[in-house]
Design brief:
There is one protein chain. Helix 6 runs parallel beside helix 8. Strand 5 and strand 6 form a beta hairpin. The chain folds into two domains: 232 residues, Up-down Bundle (Rhomboid-like fold), CATH 1.20.1540; 44 residues, no CATH class. By secondary structure, it is mainly α.
Length: 296
């Protein structure tokens, strides 16, 4: 067990940002599942607590939990939901990092999540079809952020071919178009909010990639904020205390001054003895000390 945990730690340290994000998301899912099992054993429900981390369709509720605009990305409704999101993130996230930078990845992931959240909130609060569902509807999952990554890569390398299970090799641009069309067709399905979030995330990734070709990085503000947060919580290097050196040894200013005073007093006593009794009256040790002092 210990060796398995060590191996996971090593893979996390060696992995790129995409791999680390997958590890964190899966770990949080496991923690939530374990907590839910524990609460169920005591006939209690943890869902009310989870609601504070999921994105509510109600704007009034959102005012009381604004952090859910980000935390909903790390919540998933089940193993299948998590599996598909993490597989897509692994495939297209690593492809993204081959064409863009790590800062672009982290910035667009959050920006795509915010774009998906905004699309969800606007649709549920503006279209009459969704309004009856607003009081009890919540959104969770990283699908919108992942679709932002997919759309950006498809815009940058549209002719890049990917191998899909049971389908074969397809161009990235074709895959992106198919995904968007499927989401449009299922906007009014039982998971309409999820499909709207997909469209919002994909649109965000497409706009970001287009703007980047024009010289504008829409993730610059997000990355500046993330960098500031990292610096805030990063341990500051300790400043070494100033030392002085004498006789090949290190000590403080106080120690040095005390020793120097003692040596000067001893030399003065030897000089007094020299004046009174002559050089021959000095001991071998006193002669040596006097000789050493004369060399400084």
């Amino acid at each position: 067990m210990a060796s398995t945990i060590d191996e996971l730690k090593n893979r996390f340290r060696r992995g790129n940002l995409c791999i680390r994000l997958i590890y964190v998301t899966v770990a949080l899912f496991v923690v939530c599942q374990v907590a839910e099992v524990c609460m169920t054993l005591f006939n209690q429900s943890i869902q009310p607590l989870f609601r504070w981390l999921e994105l509510p369709a109600s704007l009034e509720r959102l005012m009381w939990q604004p952090w859910s605009l980000v935390t909903y990305l790390f919540m998933h409704g089940g193993v299948i939901h998590l599996l598909f999101n993490m597989l897509w993130l692994h495939w297209f996230g690593n492809l993204f990092l081959q064409n863009f930078s790590t800062n672009h990845f982290r910035g667009l992931y959050l920006l795509g999540g915010l774009g998906a959240a905004l699309s969800y909130l606007v649709a549920f609060n503006c279209f009459p079809y969704f309004q009856p569902m607003v009081p009890y509807s919540y959104m969770l999952g990283a699908s919108g952020a992942v679709l932002a990554i997919v759309a950006a890569v498809a815009y940058r390398v549209p002719d890049q071919r990917v191998q899909l299970l049971l389908i074969g090799t397809v161009r990235l641009s074709t895959l992106a178009i198919i995904t968007v069309v499927m989401d449009l067709l299922f906007v009014t399905s039982s998971n309409g909010g999820g499909h709207i979030a997909h469209l919002g995330g994909a649109a965000t990734g497409l706009i970001w990639a287009w703007a980047l070709t024009k010289g504008t990085d829409l993730t610059r503000g997000i990355n500046a904020l993330l960098t500031a947060i990292e610096r805030l919580f990063s341990p500051k290097p300790r400043q070494p205390k100033m030392k002085v050196t004498y006789g090949g040894k290190h000590g403080s200013d106080y120690d040095y001054n005390a020793r120097k005073k003692s040596e000067d007093e001893a030399v003065n006593q030897i000089l007094d003895k020299l004046k009174k009794s002559g050089y021959e009256s000095l001991t071998t040790e006193e002669k040596q000390r006097l000789f050493s002092a004369s060399r400084h």
